[in-house]
Structures are given as structure tokens and as C-alpha cells.
Amino acid sequence: MSMSMSMASSKLLLACFSLFLSLSTVSVTSQQLLPLTHSLSKTQFSSAHHLLKSTATISAARHRRHTNRKRVSLPLSPGSDYTLTFTLKSQTFSVYMDTGSDMVWFPCSPFECILCEGKYPPGSLSPLNVSKSSLLSCKSHACSSAHSSLSSSNLCAIAKCPLDEIEISDCSNFSCPSFYYAYGDGSLIAELHSETLLMPSTSNSKPLNLKNFTFGCAHSTLGEPIGVAGFGRGSLSLPAQLANLSPDLGNQFSYCLVSHSFDSTKLRHPSPLILGKYKETEIDQVSEYVYTPMLENPKHPYFYSVGLEAISVGSRRIEAPENLRRVDRQGNGGVVVDSGTTYTMLPSKLYKAVAVELERRIGKVLKRATETESMTGLRPCFYMHGRKGRLGVVIPSLALHFGRNSSVVLPRRNYFHEFMDGGDDKKKKSKGRKMGCLMMMDAGEEEEEESGPGATLGNYQQQGFEVVYDLAERRVGFARRECATLWNNLNQH
Length: 493
What we know:
This is Peptidase A1 domain-containing protein. This protein has helices at about 1-25, 50-70, 140-145, 150-160, 165, 240-245, 245-250, 350-360, 370-375, 460, 485-490, and strands at about 30-40, 80-90, 90-100, 105-115, 180, 185-200, 210-220, 230, 250-255, 270-275, 290-295, 305, 310-315, 315-320, 335, 345, 365-370, 380-385, 400, 405-410, 415-420, 435-440, 440, 455, 465-470, 475-480.
């Protein structure tokens, strides 16, 4: 009897130890390195003007959608954005990584993409095959999150659950109704599913299995064919679901966008996306983060909003309007840090002050290229050869001053883009000249009926920085990095 009890105890201890090990494999995973691929196409854009005009148009549309919609999953397009690869049910998908939305969704079979001509090569789409068994219940918290304005009882009523079953909370067999997401130039309708999601491995990490991962399954979209990985602050975002698996992974993430200046030949390395926190000893270069607090937005809680105090052009400090410094009770104001918008969008008064100061300094030497401005949607632009052959013009420095005295000095390439003019008309005399443009845009005048962020910090201005989203401390940090070197160092470790 004693020997039997001893053997039973040993088996129990062994089982407990095995369980501990299985749980520990989750908790010790404090960092996951993933590659971000820039979606710049070598063939999609016929000229530099075409590419710049396309990204300018999309940036403006995305910012407008930020300011006047309750829920946002926004237009993303090759030429301005970054993709992340996942495996789901043995199928591999590359989707846009987006800090400006809070839902992960994939195209699902049968799939129809309306007005998507030219956005992907014919035959390249392989929609996900899903079964009804993976649909989430109308009673689930995830369903209520996807339909933020409706209670679970209302959702179950929409799902045709009988009244007597609603009254006794017995509608688990009724699926969550489809939900609608609006885009700046399109939209989608999706169902809510749950499956095991596999995140890719690198040389320093194993693949990460996310069991019971909740995602949107879109059968019909308008203008968006490939899917989005939402990294916003909502409960259905990828970081939020990671936090349920491991707080170390879900409470902080960062990315470092390899500087490209719209040159596909320079995109030889992936941009590192780091889930969790790495040790400073793992990188050769250590530059301290400049942190600024996240601002809470009661109406748009999924945004990463920060306060902007001023912008300096050279030695001149231009104060930001009051609405960029804080977010009011109606959810208006602040600056959204967004991986999915290309250019920084500023309210008209601040933008014009920055543009005028830049022109005042550069215009003494360089001539305005007004035709290039109309073709790209950017301004001011200049011919870089100089007046009367004068060369060596100095582009003034530009710095962003965030809340709590947090200042970030941008490298010149992050706000002033130089390129060879490849105008669409080959007979133009300007063809072959070197141009330079300010890579920030006018967001327009504020309108009383609109609500939401006052400005957007785009990914072009984030290049060459590691941007960290510290969800535990509710702050955003910036540190200058050689992003390709950071990828190599972390991948080796």
C-alpha cells in the first residue's frame, strides 16, 4: 500500500512538473523577433511622381478617416506600408502591420474583392478556407468587442437565438453576427473566427503558436485584398491577444523601419518587429529612448495618441495648437503614432508655418518646383541645383517636441526627400533634374463636426528609429537605430 502510494505520488509529481514545464515555455518567452517587409513595388509605379502622389493621396484619406469615424481599419497600399507573415491552417498570409486599427483579419473563401484591380497580381490570392465550427458565439466577449455598441443579448437576437434561450443565457450555439469595417477608400464585411495562429520563426526564436486566436474572416471587401494585423490598443488586437498568452510578449512591442526613401534597391534587409523587450547587451549600439506619455482617448481608445508641443525648423520653434497637446473628453486632439500612414499629417496652421519657414530658408538658394508639387501632392518642392549654379544649400534641421520635454530630432531624409525627376511627360525640360520635397502634409482646417486626432505621425518620419510601444507604462519611445544592424544583431542572439 505504501509502495503504491509512493508510486502514485511520484506520478503526480512528474505530471505536475511536466505541466510546469509546458507553462514555463510560455512565460519564459520574453521576446519574439519577426520580419517586416516593405510593400514597395518595383513595377506598380511608372514614375517617382506617380508613387509620391499615390502615397500622398492615401495618407490624406487615412487621416480623414481617423477624424470622423467611430471604428477604423484604414486603407493600406503597396508603396507605403509594411507586411507581416502568418500561417493559419497550413496557409501562409502576408498582411499589413497597422498600429492604427485593432482587429486582425484575413481574406476567406469564397472571397470577392471589389475595385481591387491592379492591387495584386492575378491568381496570387489564396483565401483562407474556414469551417463553421470555428465561428465564435454571439455570447462571447470577442463578439461584443467587434460590435462595440451592442450587448451580447442584442447580438444573439440578431443571430436569431430564441427569446427563451436569450433569457437563460443559452445561446452559445448561435454564431456572432457579421461586422462591418469602414475604410478611407473601401470597406469589408467579416465574421469572427477562432483558430491556432502560427507566427514565423527566425534564427533566434521558435515559431509561436497562438491557440484560440480570434480574427475577422472577410468574404467581401472593397479596395483591400490581403488583410490587416491590427496592433492598436483594442482587446482584439494582436498585442492584446498576445498578453493573454504571455504578458512579457504582449505588454511591449517595437519596430525599426529600415530607411528606404522609396528606393526598392535599398530594401535588402527586413525591418525588425520585436514583441516583448530585448536586453541592451544584445545590440552593439545603445541609444537611449526618448519617451512621451500615451494620451487616453475616450472615444477612440484603440489609438496610440501622444501630445505634440512644438516643431522646430532650424533655430525657430513653432508652437503647436492646443488641440495637439492633449485629448479632450469628446476624443478630439492629440497626435496618432501610426505605422500605416506614410506621411505626417499636420493641421493647416501648423503645417503652413513649418512650410513657410522651410521655404524662407531654402528659397534664398533654391527655386520652387511648383509643377512637381502639383504632380506629387507635396509642397514645398525645390529644384536642387540652386539659383545661378549655387550649390551646397543647407536644409535646416527639424525636431518634434512631444510632451514632458521629449524632443526627437529627425534626420534630413525623414522630412526632406530628394529624387530624380522622372516626369510622366518625357518632353518636359525638367526631366532628369534633382528635386527635393517636404515629406509632411496639410491635414486641412479643423471642422466642428469632425472628431478624433488632430494630427498623424506617419511611418516615413519613423524610419531609422526604433519606435517602442510600452503598454505597461503607457508611453511611446523613440531611439535612433541602424535598423538593418539591429535586425542582424537580434537575429544572431
